[in-house]
TrEMBL record:
It comes from the Eukaryota. CDD domains: Bet_v1-like. Residues 2-152 form the Bet v I/Major latex protein domain. It comes from Pisum sativum. InterPro entries: Bet_v_I/MLP, MLP-like, START-like_dom_sf. Belongs to the MLP family. GO terms for biological process: defense response. This is Bet v I/Major latex protein domain-containing protein.
Length: 156
């Protein structure tokens, strides 16, 4: 009986790794303005969106249904452009004991960039499916954010 797992996806992005990472590391509140799949994000506890003690509340769509969760930042590694979030509460706790989301943004030697997303999870029972719908949401978020960041660059 395997309850824990990881899902990983790497997506090519047109914007630089620095710019993509910066949005999630220091402008997280703006993600909802870039993505159709996120309905709302608000600061739930704390004074700063990017403080590890702060908790954010998210409303989003997975598999065609509206879900909610809370999130806090576990770690930000500026040097490696890596962020780890702990996701909990709301609909997450109904299926998972542990749910972490990790973003790593990397520039490639050929001038392109990649956003690597990892979902680490532990299901509450073997009857629960892996969080494949969250990978679909991450794909959509990445595409929407990247497209909007590219538009902003062109507009400047």
């Amino acid at each position: 009986m395997v309850l824990a797992g990881k899902l990983i996806t790497e997506l090519g992005i047109k914007t630089s790794a620095d710019k993509f990472f910066k949005l999630f590391a220091s402008e997280l509140h703006e993600v909802q303005n870039h993505c159709e799949g996120i309905h709302e994000a608000k600061l739930h506890e704390g004074d700063d969106w990017h403080d590890t003690a702060s908790v954010k509340h998210w409303t989003y769509v997975v598999d065609g249904e509206v879900h909610t969760c809370d999130e806090s930042i576990e770690e930000v590694d500026e040097h490696n452009k890596k962020i780890t979030w702990k996701v909990f509460g709301g609909d997450i706790d109904k299926q998972y004991k542990v749910f972490k989301l990790i973003l790593e943004a990397t520039d490639k030697a050929d001038g392109t960039a990649v956003a690597k997303w990892t979902v680490e999870y532990e299901k509450i029972s073997e009857d629960i499916n892996p969080p494949n719908g969250y990978i679909d949401l991450i794909f959509k978020i990445t595409r929407d954010v990247d497209a909007n960041l590219v538009k902003e660059k062109v507009a400047q």
